[in-house]
Amino acid sequence: MITRLYIGNLNFAITEAGLQEMVGRMTSLPPAHIDRAEVIRDRDTGRSRGFGFVELANSEAAQRAMSELDGIEVMGRTLKVQIAKPRSPMRSRA
User: Fold this and answer.
1) Cβ neighbours for 60, distance < 8 A, ≥ 6 positions apart
2) Domains present along the chain, CATH in parentheses
């Protein structure tokens, strides 16, 4: 089962490819365990909001990545890493 990690306090210049590469380089995970990376962007400006998500192959890989990445400094910023919470349903703006 795929597990998503929230990675906060990212440098605003990081891209999806850069985030995926960073996770692969700074953890002991094999590249096959890192399925996808997403940097969340402002809807109007397209600029990074400073956080993103990484999908990992299973919960064991996610736990290992979280313990290896949480609190380390990358590109001048201290990362905050945790298991992503399930997305709540969107409320209508009526």
Assistant:
1) none
2) 3-76 (3.30.70.330)
Return all residues near 35 (Cβ < 8 A) that are at least 6 apart.
2, 55, 56, 57
Instruction: Supply the angle between the helices 16-26 and 59-69 in degrees, to the nearest 10.
Output: 90
User: What would the pLDDT profile of 15-60 be if each residue is shown by its tens digit?
Assistant: 999 999 999 999 998 888 999 999 999 999 999 999 999 999 999 9
Q: How far is CA 16 from CA 39, 56, 60, 90, 92, in A?
A: 6, 14, 22, 24, 29
First CA to last CA across the chain, in angstroms?
A: 36
The angle formed by the CA atoms of residues 37, 83 and 49, to the nearest 5 degrees, is 50
Report the C-alpha gap between 69 and 67 in whole angstroms: 6
